[in-house]
Amino acid sequence: xxxxxxxxxxxxxxxxxxxxxxxxxxxxxxxxxxxxxxxxxxxxxxxxxxxxxxxxxxxxxxxxxxxxxxxxxxxxxxxxxxxxxxxxxxxxxxxxxxxxxxxxxxxxxxxxxxxxxxxxxxxxxxxxxxxxxxxxxxxxxxxxxxxxxxxxxxxxxxxxxxxxxxxxxxxxxxxxxxxxxxxxxxxxxxxxxxxxxxxxxxxxxxxxxxxxxxxxxxxxxxxxxxxxxxxxxxxxxxxxxxxxxxxxxx
Length: 250
Fold this sequence. Notes:
The protein has helices at 2-17, 19-45, 52-59, 64-78, 83-88, 91-96, 101-120, 124-133, 140-167, 171-190, 198-207, 209-217, 223-249. The chain is mainly alpha-helical and 250 residues long. The longest helix has 28 residues, at 140-167.
């Protein structure tokens, strides 16, 4: 466990001393700040006011403006985890060090989840603004469920990105593979809105991030989605360990 924490701290430190981390954070905050501002204007202009809580529901997964950046930022955040080690030649010393593949993968994964959490933390200010300015009381249970959903998505997305970084030869390939996989799953989820049978619609909706976040943002904690995200993450981490083990043996 000490090896996991050591690798995680090293990775977090490398995140925040690299320019790309601050570029990602700046663009992330600017984009979602603009989205929140636009949605706030829309809800403010609606006849009769309406529910300020609906503003938060719309912001956290109610529009495509929420999902599309995730498909871009997740690959950028994870592409360097192992692919950079491979392209820079530092993967060999890492694999020959007295640490297991599991420790390396879990350390890198923990660092990615930390960065994911840091990115979402400033959005609490939007909740505070709505609570201060809104006429209606914010549903804190729904807010808690929303952030649980966001973390669950991060558990899923960061694991997939880590696996793609483990098998890719360089960072660009890792980012492209992660985008293709996550984008493909997102499109499959949208297929649930097509004219398909009820059984297929249920499967597509279960696989889709849109339905998942719509549920959590309304305060509905559906354990099926938690199990789905955790299962995909566990499979991706296992495959990442196997990919590292294969590299050690080669």
